[in-house]
Amino acid sequence: MKSTIGSPWHPRLTDPSDSREVKPRTSGLTMVIDKGLGPHAFQDLLTTSSGYFDLLKFGFGTSSLYPSPLLREKLAQAKNAGIAAFPGGTLLEAAFRLRVVPDFFRSVLELGFDGVEISDGTVHLKRSERDELIREAGLLGLRVFTEYGKKTHGARLDIDDLCRTFERDLNCGAELVTVEARESGQGVGLFDDDGACREDELELVLKRIPDRTKLMWEAPQKDQQAALLRIVGPDVNLGNVQPQEAFALETMRRGLRSDTFGLHRVISDYVI
C-alpha cells in the first residue's frame, strides 16, 4: 500500500518516487536519535513527522537520566504513533561492564521500551556474549537491534567481519543490524574524515549482504543520506537522523529535493 496521507496535492507530488509505503514498513526505515528532547519539542516532532520515521533511539546513556514520568510519557506517545523506542547500545554496554545486565533488562521492560540495541562500540564482547545478550532480549519479548562497528575515530569497515556478524546476529534473533557511524558521521565506518561516503566499500557490502532490508546505515549528515538513497535506493534504512531532519529526509526519500530528484519515476504522458 502506497503512502496516502490526506493532502490537496496531486498524489504524484506527494510521492514522485511512487514507492513510499505507509507504516508499518519493513524497508525504508528511518531511525531518529533523541538526545534529550523536552516534552514540547518531542510533541512537535510527532505532530510533523510521526508518519515519516519508524524507530526512536534514546541516544547513548540518556535514558537513565530522564525523570521517569517524562520518559514513560515519551515512550507512550511514541508507541501510540507506531514508533518503536529503545535505549542506545552504550547504556547496555555500561550495564555489561558494571555487571548489572539483569537490572538493565528489568528497567527496560518496566519503563515500556519496545526493544534494545546491542552493541560493542566501546567495550569488548566475546561472540558468545553477544549471542547470549541477543537471545536473552528476544526471550524477554524485546525487539533486538544490533550495531556493528567501533566508535573509535578511524575505525574502518571490515566487510568480511560485517557479513559474518550480520548473518550470526540475525540467526540469534536480531531483526536489524546497524552499521556504526556515530553522531558526527566522520572518520568511522563507511565515512571518511570529511564525512564522505566510501562508495566502493558500500558497493562491496551490497554485493555480499543477501537481505538489505535487515541492514541499517547510520547517516547523520544530509549528504550521506542523499548518497545512500541514490546508490541503494529510496528503501534504504537510515539511522541516527537528527529530529529536526526527519521531515526533510522524507522529502529526499520521495524525490522532492534536488539531492535525490532523479529518484522520480518519469511518466511519459504529461497531462494538464
Describe how the helices and strands are arranged.
Blueprint (H helix, E strand, L loop, with lengths): L10 H4 L15 E5 L4 H11 L5 E4 L9 H13 L3 E4 L1 H10 L2 H11 L3 E4 L8 H13 L3 E6 L10 H14 L3 E4 L19 H10 L6 E4 L3 H11 L4 E5 L4 H9 L18
Notes on the protein architecture:
It is built from ten helices and eight strands. Helices cover 39% and strands 13% of the residues. The chain has 272 residues and is an alpha/beta fold. The C terminus is likely disordered. An eight-stranded parallel sheet has the order 3-2-1-8-7-6-5-4. The two termini are 26 Å apart. Helix 2 runs parallel beside helix 3.
What is the general shape? globular
Straight-line distance between termini: 26 Å
The low-confidence parts are 265-272
Number of helices: 10
Largest β-sheet summary: 8 strands, parallel
What class do helices, strands and sheet pairing give?
alpha/beta
Q: What fraction of residues sit in β-strands?
A: 5-15%
Instruction: Indicate the radius of gyration in whole angstroms.
Output: 19 Å
Say how many strands there are.
Answer: 8
Order of strands, main sheet, comes to 3-2-1-8-7-6-5-4
Work out the helicity level.
Answer: 25-40%
Mean pLDDT level: 90
Q: What is the H/E string?
A: HEHEHEHHEHEHEHEHEH
Oligomeric state? single chain
Keyword list:
single chain, 272 residues, globular, disordered C terminus
Quickly describe the structure:
This protein is an alpha/beta fold and 272 residues long.
